Structures are given as C-alpha cells and as structure tokens.
Sequence to fold (77 residues):
Amino acid sequence: MLKPRKHADPSLSVLNIAGLTIEVLQQNKIMTHDDLLASLTNQTSESVKEVYHYALSFLYLVGKLEYIPEIDALRIP
Fold:
C-alpha cells in the first residue's frame, strides 16, 4: 500500500511497517528474516505479511537496511 485508500489501515502501511522494522532491529541488532517477520506479526497482525517485503525493499533502497546473505539476517548499518 503506497497510496492511501478509503479502506486502508494506516497501521499496515509500508512506512509504518518500515518504522516498526527499524525499532525492532535497533533493539536486537541482527535478526533473521523469519524472526523479524514473526516479531512484526506479533506487534501488528497476520496482514503484515502482505506489506513486509515492500517495507524491507524500501528500507534497503534508502540505505537503512543491510542484508547478510550468509546467515539470512538483517541489520541496520
């Protein structure tokens, strides 16, 4: 969800999920892809899975997220 719509849930927007992702990674430093998704699912709802990858892509493109392929983990550079 990049453009807001009448029936959109603001808590499940790409920007909100990106912000929550940064908060979780600031607390845990390095997290695996699955652990991060589970943490965000616990904080919001199962619907977060629909925008999770968009939020990660956004953070990666703006340079706020680093992917470690050896351990399939994410961290803030």
Observations:
- The first helix runs from residue 14 to 28.
- The beta strands are 30-32, 66-68, 73-75.
